[in-house]
Amino acid sequence: MAVDPFSRKEWYDLRAPTVFETRIAGKTLVNRSQGTKNAVDYLKSRVFEVSLGDLNKDEEQAFRKFKLQVSDVAGRNCLTSFHSMDITTDKLRSLIKKWQTLIEASVEVKTSDGYLLRLFAIGFTKRHAGQVKSTTYAQSSQVRLIRKKMVEIMTNEVQSSTMREVLQKFIPESIGREIEKACHSIYPLQNVLIRKCKLIKAPKVDAQKLLESHGSLEDTGSKIKGEFKEPEVQAEV
User: What is the phi/psi pair of residue 168, to 5°?
Assistant: First the structure.
């Protein structure tokens, strides 16, 4: 008689940091602890991709994706931390059009609390006020100046902030707006955003700081309609 493999598994909640509105981002399965095999060891370092639209309950932000990594486990809660950030392919393709210049820049920079990040910025030229000409191509010298300014602003914004503050800047795209303002005198830009961010190196996990970044474990964020029910164990499959 075959035993249902799900009878050996347990459900754990995935808890997102308090910087996001939704506290429980999802659930994950793992085999129960047995003998020398500890369930916690199999949960740590798991990476989950979640849409910002789901994390903040705002469909307009759904084009931005966050990857969260399990750093520690407290009871039935997986405490996650930032792993990487990206935007969806359809959003990126919707921005690329004819008759404009695409400008990209990347930089590696360390936050004030020791996280080494690699950021990628993207921006597009737009028409000057009252421009009649249909094309908005920037000269190579202007592109170099804009790229230099992008790197400078990303470095300043990240170096002066903690990891939590950097995440808070990603959500409203405040770094992109700063780049637009700073580059307006060189060439007007539009749709400037941090399209990707990778965590290259993180400091050693501090259990106390991790718990602080998650607040109260009783806090579940906004209530989800209907309670989650663990599926019944089947005797046979």
Answer: -65, -25
